[in-house]
Amino acid sequence: MEIDTIATEIKATDIEGLRIGQAKSEKGKTGVTVLLFDQPATGGVDISGGGPASRETPLLSPLTANNPIHAVVLSGGSAYGLEAAAGVMRYLEEHGIGYDTRFAKVPLVCQSCIYDLGYGDPSIRPDAQMGYDACVDAEAAKEPKSGNEGAGCGATVGKLFGMECAEKSGLGIAALKVGELKMAAVVVVNAFGDIFDSTTGKKIAGLKSPDRTKELDTCAEFLKIAKPTDFYKENTTIGAIVTNGRFAQDEANKIASMARCAYARNINPVGTMADGDTIYAVSMGNVRADINVAGTLAAKVMSLAIERAVRDAAIPDAEYLANCVRLEK
């Protein structure tokens, strides 16, 4: 994606108070990416897919009290991976961070997981220790890497015909600045559909023929299936938008829903019942900005992160196939 002259690319860690840490298992091909906030933050969420694996998302509903959150966790492992948040809570408690009740400080941690059990060793899933290790990694305050890192280690795309016809994807991170408004996106692209360059419309990853010599169009192949079928459901694109803009909880929810436009620009098909597509939006600053501008910038930076997730995670076919779990027929 080309970045125009109005929006300037920055580092995600240029957003004051945001720290990002990662941990992974090379054998399991799975991992955790954690976003820690130095001060309690305001959050929102948009869930457009039919099968999310998540925790504490009701905290972000505009129908609840304005609950501050202390971290967002993205992980592999499907619902098993939700255990990683326990390690994040332990880390935050040790550092005196949490919602102050009469008897304890309770860290409020939101999390979403991708299904990556078909890649690497499915018996290895993100656990509490991996979540804790990701928090320790964030202490270095270094710029996190995109690609086969953290929660993106087992991400794949284009899975209509199974893992053997899919391609490797991963974790994408991008950040932009317009004036004083900063916006970062962290996304794990584990989509059912194909991934496209939003500027050119060219496919950059997705469904391949069984012999892997041709690129196939998932949408076209999908539409050929006229009757209900139990197609592959091991998909989800999960991401987070973080801004130094000052927004209330209902506004953060709107920014999350506007950021979903990036999913539509870059992924086709998207938001199916085979996906658990989720986007968090987190406000952790005091910069005043128009919510429509913020939502537009959120979609732009999320689109950039999606494309980066695919391009930075590309590996040779032989390496990819060697890590796919083979099912007995």
From TrEMBL:
It comes from the Bacteria. InterPro entries: ArgJ-like_dom_sf (IPR016117), Peptidase_S58_DmpA (IPR005321). PANTHER family: BLR5678 PROTEIN, D-AMINOPEPTIDASE. Belongs to the peptidase S58 family. This is P1 family peptidase. It comes from Roseburia yibonii.
